[in-house]
Specification:
Alpha-Beta Plaits, 4 strands, alpha+beta, four-stranded antiparallel β-sheet
Length: about 140
């Protein structure tokens, strides 16, 4: 379920950031997976559950600050091909950083750049939060001959 403070922030950034609904986001993930296999161009995936944000930032003020900077940073990133969408049941947000072949896991450059920008403005480092899912698709082993 969408947190109340996130709903307030999303209204403000609705013209700057497009967040796919779950059904369309899964379709885009599938499309990117097919493309990445054909072009041998992996993408990096991050999944953040709202329960993790709530656990790490128990204060409503901290969560408001976090989401404001989060979407502000997302709207100013210059990687227009990256995707953002809600998870099933709207219980989180997922990201695709396309053409992200350097660095896996928490060390992905696109993800780190985004996290550094959020951390610089909030002092909250998402990379230290337990429960965030990181994955590279397709896995590098897929391309091993």
């Amino acid at each position: 379920m969408l947190p109340k403070e996130l709903s307030l922030i999303l209204r403000k950034y609705k013209d700057k950031v497009f967040v796919y609904a779950w059904e369309y986001f899964t379709k885009r993930i599938h499309d990117e997976l097919v493309y990445s296999v054909l072009e041998q161009s992996p993408f990096f995936y991050v999944e953040i559950r709202f329960s993790v944000v709530h656990r790490e930032l128990p204060s409503t003020d901290d969560r408001l600050k976090f989401w404001k900077v989060f979407f502000e940073s997302l709207s100013t990133q210059k990687r227009g091909s990256d995707l953002c969408g809600f998870l099933n049941e709207n219980d989180g947000i997922g990201f695709l950083f396309v053409d992200s072949v350097i660095g896996v896991g928490e060390k992905n450059p696109g993800w780190n750049r985004f996290c550094n920008e959020v951390e610089a403005k909030t002092l909250f480092d998402m990379r230290k939060w337990e429960g965030i899912i990181y994955a590279e698709y397709p896995p590098k082993e897929f391309f091993v001959k």
